[in-house]
Structures are given as C-alpha cells and as structure tokens.
Design goal:
about 325 residues; mainly alpha; MetI-like fold
C-alpha cells in the first residue's frame, strides 16, 4: 500500500512539472526574460516593446531558474503595478478558495440529493427534471451568469452583483460579516457549480440505480427494514465513485473560476489572471498558473488516496 502511494505521488509530481514546463514554454516564447522573477528591474515600457524571440536552447535553463524561485513562492514583480506578485495574489487566493469550496459544497450536496431523488422516483418526475438538468448543463457559465445577474441582481435586486463585501456595511460582529460574505457568494457560486451539479446528479442517479437492483437491496426490503435505512446501505455502497469524481470536478471549477470571477468582479485570482492577460503581465500569469496547477494536482492526489483508502477492493488489489 505504501509503495503504491509513493509511486502515485511521484507520478503526479512528474506530471505537475511537465505541465508547468509546457505552460512556461508558451508564455516564455511570448514574454521572453520578462516572465522571470529577476525581471523586476525592467521598465514598464517593456510591455509595449515586442520582446526578442528566445532560443529553444535557453528555455530549459530559464524554466529551472523560474521554478527554483516559484517553489519558494517568489514570482518577482508585476510589470503593470511594480508590486510584488506574491502581495497581489495571496490576499486574493483565499477569496478564490472560499468560492471554490462553496461551489464544491453546492455540487456534491445538491448533486447527491437530486441524484438520489431521481434514482428513487424516476417513473414519477425523473424525465421532466432530467430534461431541465440537460438544458442547464448545455448553458455556458458566462451565459448563465449574465442571466442570473440580469434577473436576480438588476431586476429583483435580491442579491449583490459584484465583490465580496457590501460597501455600506457597518460591521457589528463576525456573524454579520459571515452572512454578508455568504450573500455575495450565492450568484457566483451557483454559476460556477451549475454544470458540475448536473454532472454529479446524473452520475449519482446511474450509480444508485444499479445498486438499487442489487440482490442485497431486495433482501433488506423483504426483511421489513425501513426505507431510510435501506437508503443508507445503498448510499454507503455507492459513495466510492464520488471520491474519484472530485478529481474531475476540481479542474473544471478552477478553470471556470476565471470567467465567473471576471463576470461578477469577484476579488479572486481568477479575475487577477484575466486582468493580467489583458495587461500582458507575464509574471502574474505564470504565478496564477503555477498555483492553479498545484491545486489541481493536489485535488487529484487526494481523491486518488481517498479512493484507495476507503474502497476495500482497491486495497486488496494493491496488497
């Protein structure tokens, strides 16, 4: 078991550095030496001057120099604001983590609830609701965000349209601050979690539907066991695939956060990345890419470890 875990970690680390190298090559090909942390003393005019195209032989060395700094979270200075990239990113990183955790909670709690309901009541309301879910899945995130903003923020004025805090809020305690933050998370969180919620709902329905036809479920029902206890056994046997689904959901959320945060003017690293792309601020672009890639591979490793830990079939195969 320990050998398998170490092997999985090494494979993920190797993949992480390869992905970073490919991304670095693309950005370094455009920005040249301006992407390196040592470029903080360059003038702001460097953005308006087309950099000389670097030679291929220089790229591995430049990547190692950048990576040695990035591992220590030293990304140099921003080309647009001349501030430290770390000072720009890390205060906003916690806002993005909060939004992603809120979206993950909506995805898995809502997806498992709706999927379980559809698995038990497919003949009643399963087909109409599934049609609505397919329509929701087909809507792009930015279109759904515009619709939610237009209806619930600008027409009904039920939710705020941007930011993370109210400008006119007189804070009188941590509870008021938490409620205000939750109030601002609803629209971007729903937008970011919509496609993932539909995906988990469909997956839950198909997974639990197969287990409901298993012989042990009929045996439990024939013994007169209450339905809620039967459902507990069904959910326990069908929970293992959800651990691997987290590995697929996390990359989708991280990539979708760029559009959603920019649309709602949410102060996270997704909007920071979008602004950096418009300003051709290469150190910030690489720093955000490094952090996002790190979170994606951490999510993959954690889901892989949990699946191996909780599923006895995989533990037996590893042994």
């Amino acid at each position: 078991m320990m050998y398998t875990i170490i092997k999985s970690i090494l494979i993920h680390l190797l993949s992480f550095f390869i992905v970073l190298f490919l991304i670095f090559l693309l950005i370094y090909k455009v920005g040249g030496e301006t992407v390196l942390p040592t470029s903080s003393n360059l003038s702001l005019g460097v953005k308006t001057v087309t950099p000389s195209s670097p030679r291929i032989a220089e790229m591995p060395g430049a990547y190692l120099r950048w990576l040695s700094k990035a591992i220590r979270l030293e990304f140099g200075s921003s080309l647009s604001s001349r501030r430290s990239v770390s000072d720009i990113i890390f205060p906003r990183l916690w806002n993005s983590i909060l939004l992603n955790l809120f979206s993950l909670a909506l995805i898995f709690i809502g997806g498992v609830t709706l999927g379980s309901f559809l698995a038990y009541h497919t003949s009643d309301v399963g087909h109409p609701m599934e049609s609505l879910l397919y329509m929701l899945y087909a809507i792009p995130d930015f279109v759904l965000g515009v619709v939610l903003l237009s209806v619930f923020a600008f027409y009904f004025h039920w939710f705020p349209s941007c930011c993370l805090h109210s400008f006119n809020l007189h804070v009188s305690g941590p509870w008021h601050t938490a409620i205000d933050v939750f109030y601002h998370l609803i629209l971007p969180g729903v937008t970011l979690s919509a496609s993932g919620l539909v995906f988990i709902t469909r997956f839950t329905k198909s997974s639990l539907g197969e287990i409901l036809d298993a012989p042990f479920v009929f045996a439990l029902k024939s013994r007169g066991i209450p339905p809620h206890k039967v459902f507990r056994h069904v959910l326990k046997n069908g929970i293992f695939p959800f651990l691997t689904m987290a590995g697929f959901i996390i990359p989708a959320i991280v990539s979708g956060a760029v559009v959603v945060e920019s649309l709602f003017s949410y102060p996270g690293i997704g909007k920071t990345f979008f602004d950096a792309v418009l300003a051709r601020d290469y150190p910030v672009i690489l720093a955000v890419t490094f952090i996002d890639t790190l979170f994606v591979f951490m999510g993959l490793m954690i889901s892989n470890f949990l699946y191996r830990h909780f599923d006895p079939r995989v533990k037996y195969a590893d042994s």
